[in-house]
Records
---
Amino acid sequence: MFYLEKIILITAGIASCISILFIPRSKAAKASFIFLLTQFFSWILGLIVVELSLLDYPVREFSKANATSFMFEYFVLPVLTIFFILYFPYNKALRTRIAYYIAFSTAFTAVELLLEKYTLIIEYHSWKWYWTWISMSLLFYAVKTIYKWFYKIKGIFSI
């Protein structure tokens, strides 16, 4: 029972661990800051969404301790946000930067939709796919804005 779901969660964890190896050592401190900041926002928002019964994680790690998905909230999303911010095209045209947001948010939402449709990793109740897309875009923007402020990068509020 739940064999597919456990394989997916383990694979996501392994892929996230391996991807961390591709973060340059010179950016390790910045990556750590992004990782922890994303966990902070993800933890709060994830708990709110689950407690309001907008969605559910039927198969998850630490099911007795937390109603959210540990792998998603505390590992996969923070690692994804690291790559989003560290490789963001800051000096490119506005349409390129917007396309970057759209690409990351759409890819994440598409994967979540597949997981919602074909597995028991996530189950939507009154949640809709576009809420995932919007929340991912806002999370990326918020973390990037705080990152730019903390590291004194110009154009704090620019996309």
---
Amino acid sequence: MKANGTTEMSNLIFYEKQGCMGNKGQKDMLTAQGHRFEVRDILTEAWTKERLRAFFGDKPVPAWFNMTAPQVKDGRLEVEKLSEQKALNLMVIEPILIKRPLLELGELRQSGFSAGPVLNYLEVTLEGNLNLADCPMGGSSVECEVPA
């Protein structure tokens, strides 16, 4: 419900990795705050570089990445050295690299579950002590980041 008392019926799309505990907590929070959404699998979505780029706004390239993805976590992929185009090329090929969730509401897009265009528009209240932006497993579970 918006601050003006009206309920907005939206076409919020929540791109997740199925089985991700962090994404489950994020969806639970959205539902508890009265938001409805369509869930899509980030790993099977047909991404293009142009479409994907819109989710990152003015964030620096390293912030686009899922830091618990195996290639990033073990240092094989040095995200701070990548150009925008190289990063997008890699993400289109390996969507596990994308910072989750991706949120889409009309023309608004954002990556990650923190303050940003979509969550701000929806007036989502992010819980103070509960960090839903990071992996609750601490990225320690290989099963979480291996494509299904």
